[in-house]
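quick one before i forget lol
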Amino acid sequence: MLKKIIPLLLLTPLLFLTGCGALRSIGAGGDKPTQPIYKNYVRVDSSQNGWNGEDLEYEYEGINKKWGVSLSSIPDFTATSVSDGLKTTTTFIANDIGVPGSFKVNFVYEKRSSKVATSKSQTRTGSESTTYLGGSNTNYEGQFRILESDYRLGIHIPQEENNGVVVSVIGQGVVMNHEAFRDDAFWQNSGENCSNEEDDDGNGYADDCYGYDFAQNKGFSLTTTQEMIIDSHETQVAGIITGESVKNGYRSINPKSQIMNLKVVRDSDRKHLVSAVEKSIRYSADNIDGKCILNMSFTIIDLGTLIKDSLEYAYGKGCLIFAGVGNSGDRSTFSPHYYSDYVEGITGLDPNGTERYSGSSWSDSVMFASPVIKVYSLAGSDGYYAETGTSYSTPIISGIASLIWGNDPNLSRQDVLDKLIYHSEKIPEFDRTGKGKIKVRKLVESYVELHFKTVQSDIDNDGQLEQLNLEISTNDGEFNKGYITHIVDDGVQYSVFREI
């Protein structure tokens, strides 16, 4: 057992074919006693994967853990683990677990004595012991986490490199220096010098390197912090589309997608400006080359036809436009979702995934429903938080659309929309829920074959078996992508999601 060990793993892929939020403790609460436990150090053998000599240490106590989970009674394979001092190596190959393709995984586990605070010794009871994963019950204490739902499977859809798909996030501005965003998470204007305060590309906006603040008339930098953005709203929105921090229980729909950061909210009164919205829509259409997705997680009253005309313009240039329909629980006639000729409205899906959430609005533009309750994402510069609203339902669909377009950049806007519709499922209130919810697993299986396997072994050399849950995709018998998603130990399921 890993009873007194904080789990971390590194998967050493030896692939012989090509391819291969702040998390709130889920402990029982109360005082956390300090007691001797082990920290897990993992490293890659230098002879196999170019290890640079640095140990990787996981210092967070109890990552994403759930109580009351049993080992599979019929594992797909029981692997042999070989120990050398405190280091234990568990090895298995594709044939061992009945998956097509040739690959080998070395799971290297090294533990060292330490003292840290822990609450694992405290007992968990009640429904929490049975709500660890699966179906509509994909939450942590009521939260919807992409990492623990079928929506995570979208990452298995193969992506072309440099496909040019960009999601324009329009709203209150994104905190770009959040730890979960990778260095290239944001669209960059190749024609702009980011530090000379001049309009180098002649498009009318100086220093619009990663987007633009149309309310304050200035550009953004990659060091844009929470202090520069008045609200985390769009950071949470963008974090649902792209970003990853598994140690904090978080992953987005498409960690490799790119965001265009467009701010349309005035700092002084937090008001969305119609003129800024209009300019941001046109800017998106003019600066994203063809494969253009607009995400608008807000509602506003149009001024004449300014927003309508800009939406028509973006639609004419091939952009796929998604907008949240609001949270009043009744019919909404606000912009931008009101303009159903150009916009696909998104409403909220109840936690059971069977009907519209009663607090979510609807309109004639509604095309899909997606999770809406306590959607877990980013906050501030290094935080993680769960919020409710169609603001967070909308980027789920935007993220899935980016995966479809990223697989085949030659698709048209309508091709992407048709793919979503084909893999949707009607739910009650057709006039309020459109085509219903996306059947994400079926969508992913239209691209790859999914395999869910279990390997058990004594991975830490304590004389008892632990279980590794695997999620692997193959394409025409070739390995595509794979993860060890969870470790099950001593009745506790740890979510780890390490790629193999």
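fyi Residues 2-62, 114-139 have pLDDT under 50 and may be disordered.
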